[in-house]
Amino acid sequence: MHEHTPPAAGGPSAEGEKQSQAGKAAQTQAGKDRKISGRGATRVPGGKGRAASVAGVAAGVLILAGGGALVAGGSLMAGPASTRTVPPAEAAVPAGASLGVCPGPARLLAGTDAGTDAQFRPESATAATKVSAAVLSAGGALPGSRLARLDGTAALEISKDPGPAPTAAAPQELLAGVAADRVVDQVSVLTAQAVANQNASAAAAMKYTAKDGDLQGSAAATCAQPSNDQWLAGASTTVGRTSVLALTNASSTPATVSLELFGSGGQVQAPGSRGLLVAPGTTRSVVLAGLAPNEPSLSVHVRSAGGPVAASIQQSVLRGLTPGGVDFISPGTSPAVRQVMTGVDIQDPAGIAALTAQAAYKDAGPALELTVPGAADAVVEIKLYGRDGQHALPSGGVITAKAGSTTEVSLAGVPAGQYTVAASSDVSFVAAARMGRGLQAGQPSDVAWAPSAVRLGSQHVVPVPKGGQRQLVFGALDTRASITYAPITADGKVRAAATADIAGGTTATIGIPEQAEGVDVVGYVVSASGDAAYGAVLVGQDGRNDVSSLAFLAAAAGQETVPVALGY
Asked: Of the candidates 8, 97, 148, 330, which lies 20 to 30 Å from 228 by C-alpha distance?
């Protein structure tokens, strides 16, 4: 750095005036350079830029005649505001309506082409499909809610819009709006509006039953929230097995759906699995055998661009001329390093061994299906927790699931009862558990799939179909969990809650009564504390080999926020 001779007393000379102008120009250039480099110091590489920098530094040391203060040009100047790191601001997202899309009745195919809308005919004269729903109050007010067809017709108003948001006050009594066993003949949609900018706590479930025909048995499904990304595991397209994927668009935006199919031999490259258009307010059905034929274990990854869709798979089995069951496969949780299925009903191990030894019944036993979508194999540890603790699998419980494919693991060999199945690995995977009911070959039987479940939190709404055998099944993994469950009755009241204290590594089964305080039970409000706990509803029919499993939906979230980065 060079110092310049100060001008003579009495005022700046012409030379000093030129130096002052040069210094201002250098400071201006230095500020521009700092903006480009993003740092506080001036540094411009190469040729003319370096010369300008040197000149700016030399001219930057000035003696101001008026005050005699020495200023180092640029070295004491604050950095421009654009170089500061500003944390992202949190922006509140307005709560919207909660949707639950229920699959339509199970039907036999009358002949379809893969990738096109299926043509259906009714299954039998005794087939019936009913939907039950429950909506909880917030701040003493029930949200506006209704159950309707996909096109909005035949609406049942569950509760009216409460109007202006209620003001904060003392805690109000928890109320419920209910729809109990409403007969439906097609896809139905539960809609619940937000209250006080909070998402509504609402859920619905459908139940299909038939006493005759090829689709006799029971099938139940929780009415799912539409999504742009979901996984379904448990389909089969071998002889006698029919899997029909239903894609429902309940939004006002067209959806373009792409399917990824994973079979036992790896990922299936299927023409016609991409770019499936689902118009608003419609359901598109895809026969999976047309995309992936003769697959004993098939998982489907459903992704949609544009509007979100609700996806489910109608799975049915016919063993020769004997009905082998019907079920609706619902989406499970996304790929993760731990997956948990609860409410897995396992029959007598000796009876299962005798049944599955027959050629047509090899898939009649309980099993866990694993899908590894990534490029690395997964070493998976499997644990079964029953009423009295952990039970070991005959296979040892540690298996290798191949990358990019599905792997089936038998769950037979443990005592009869209800179980929680936990699978863990260091590689993300998808899982679902199969269960059956009926041990006599040549007699009608049933099948059900338990998808991987969400961890229980606070205030889950659990609708319960009326009639038959109904059980709440809860599982705790490592340490003790406490679960409260309060019945919702048909008169819209939430009755006194009971508490179940569940030891770690066990599964508890609680029978659901027909009535509470003289009124029909149509659902529960469930909350959990302590260690990780999971829940499901098991549904059966008296005197029949019917079985269905209903997964709990995630609890309604409060007001959500998203990070918003400001910049250009």
From this structure: 148
